[in-house]
Amino acid sequence: MKTYQLMATAASGIEAITGNELKKMGYNVQVENGKAYFSGTEADIITTNLWLRTADRIKIVFGKFEAKTFDDLFEQTKALPWEQILPMDAEFPVSGKSQKSTLYSVPDCQAIVKKAIVNRLSEYYHRRTRLPESGALYPIEVAINKDEVILTIDTSGSSLFKRGYRSEKGGAPLKENMAAALVMLTNWFPDRPFYDPTCGSGTIPIEAALIGLNIAPGLKRSFPSEEWNIFEEGLWDRIRNEAKAAANFDVKLDIGGSDIDPHVIAIAKSNAEKAGVADYVTFKQLALADFTTTKEYGTIVCNPPYGERLSDQEEIEILYKEMGQVFRPMKTWSKYILTSELLFEEFYGERATKKRKLYNGRLRTDFFQYWGTRPPRIKKELDVSETKEK
């Protein structure tokens, strides 16, 4: 199989988590702002699309060069071997972005890249009329930053956060890959309790269940690259079947979520059913102030309302104070709260052990972390039968 330079894109603040995912999968990774670079074959393109929990997209890095004029952009784009991936009937829309570069007109850059690829393919396929673009989809992006051009081909299509299980959403939904990142930033292990007391449509508990059961997040969706002819016949099916077989449904999980709104609880249950984890997650209608538990050494992760509308601010302050009153006595539990409220610690009534800056979409937020006490180590009893009499 051919080796490609690949790029996993990710939201600002979680690219390091995406990089760690790739490292655990055995790849050599270089992490930059919003992206993680690695090399892989066609099989790796499939594997990472199916398994990465925190990435947005997997892209093939097809060209990298400096360009300060439109002629440079055209000639260097045309010089690339596009026919190695794009068939004659490929549909290849070109999107673009430009930052701090001489070539700042994005529409012009897109048009020039499109024209260069058309010229290259027309010459290669001996085509005198327009290319049909009636075949598989190959989304192409031209990204220019400080005059450095990166040309990529998107293998994922719609963002990887679209797992396929969330047909309905709550009022302020958290993207699935961000929810997975929040879970992966905690100290939670699948053998311990996990709870979200402001669960909305259930995304955080569902993502925790997918992690706990080792279910590949991309199993219930499709990808435009499934139609590409660079993949040997049956490769997608084989790797998808291997991913299905890797799930472990024998694991016992203690995952729950609650919300004061009965409508979103109904949505959460429906989403869990579609995700295949309904038997492993318990949802119920409950006000945060009424949450109690006798369990120990659990993990709470929640994405409460931020109070983005001015009229909500008083209610939000009350909610955060209730959080402090409910959570602070739970000394063995670790609590993780995502919010854009800079005064959260003041309302909560305690300084966080640690906080991490994250972006929920374009909104700057902080992930406030309150670490619970560690469970005592279990001392191994000495096996009498293995001791020697002295």
UniProtKB/TrEMBL annotation:
GO MF annotation terms: RNA binding; rRNA (guanine-N2-)-methyltransferase activity; rRNA (guanine-N7-)-methyltransferase activity
Domain THUMP: 44-155
Alphabetized UniProt keyword annotations: Methyltransferase, RNA-binding, Transferase
Pfam families, per the entry: RlmL_1st, THUMP, UPF0020
Protein name: Putative N6-adenine-specific DNA methylase
Source organism per UniProt: Trichococcus patagoniensis
